Amino acid sequence: MARYETVIGVEVHAQLKTESKIFCSCSTRFGDAPNENVCPVCSGMPGVLPVLNAKAVEYAAKMGLATDCAVNPVSVFARKNYFYPDLPKAYQISQYEQPICEHGHVDVLVDGRTKRVGITRIHMEEDAGKNIHSAADNLSYVDLNRACVPLIEIVSEPDMRGPEEVVAYLKALRAILVYLGICDGNMEEGSFRCDANVSLRPVGQEPFGTRAELKNLNSFRHVQKAIEYEMERQADILDDGGTVVQETRLYDAAKNVTASMRAKEEANDYRYFPDPDLVPLTLNADTLARWKGELPELPAARRARFVAALGLSEYDADVLTAERALADYFEAVLAAGVEAKKAANWIQTELLCECNQSGTAPTACPLTPGHLAGLIKLVDDGVISGKIAKQIFPELFASGEQPADYVRAKGLAQISDTGALEAAVDAVLAANPAEVEAYRGGKKKLMGFFVGQIMKATKGQANPGLVNELLAQKLG
User: What value does the mean pLDDT of the chain take?
Assistant: First the structure.
């Protein structure tokens, strides 16, 4: 592979989180019965007229503003003509020559370095329906619930040079969409979908090679695996003196291969022309300024603030800001008076572990930010040890009980009474005379053995700092 450089561009379709579809008032709810949310407009009946959803326009423009795009004061809807059973009009309403947003970028972190990925355009369009193929019935069905659902397509420049950069870019885009509240980012339900255009060229060559478009990529892991396979496939073809064919390929996750689907269309195959049923969309400067003022603190800015103001590492800040809900949870713990690094450590280890195992979002878990802050303070105040806190964390996560109440009810408070601990220390030293002699003879690593025995005798409730002090005094 060292002979070739990989060139990758990505097209992302993000479903906008509106209540109704882009050109009609039908619901965008996911999971309803087939063809429940359908009307004459989204089913393509003759003579009907589309009416543009203003909220979809706002969301599309905000994504452009968030990615440093130029938001065009005038954009035009076009008809993209092709035939497929799930497209009853035989054309898709999209944007072509005059999209709503152009010429932006996203900065992503890859292996500790910043990579800038250019955004060619962001345009609005309607989704198609869904074909359902039943082998049992030997029939195919069409569900039009998804037809006319509002999408934005985000087209990148061919700036990425490997699957790691693509995954980082996609995660950054998804985070921005979710931070803005305009897309839920659910890849399994198809709210965030991507196609990757992959080509190889000899190292040092300026012109791009022939690209293959990869579809059916519904997870970040699948994106990584599909691109890796495609890089190897194209390299084998070029090494054998062959020619890569421009085509669309489907990724089979079970076999970890890509397979040819169809020849890749060019823009002229779709016979784009302005949609005569929709007037040009115009946006004034005041509206754009208002929308820009409504943007939240975005992931990159929040990550930079966590590093500069809170002293977190780039890694910690990156993990905590990857999801808006997690960053909000972290800041709520800080607001309760906990040090940033301690909060970050507990969230990244204990909290995320429990969230992942239970499939629960941080905002939905019973352990509130206030409860986590309370648990950390119990450790800081010496009421319980860090070990005990980690042991009881899963139960606190599941129950949502106040940590202080739980510790009191279970009798888990740390033993910090010098008299009681001194008795425990004396008992352990008396029971292990050989180890005491060995320690005094120079085997200082036995200190850990003594501490462990005392913690065992006190069921983990002895104050570790005080135990170490007493041991040091008695062992000399």
Answer: 92
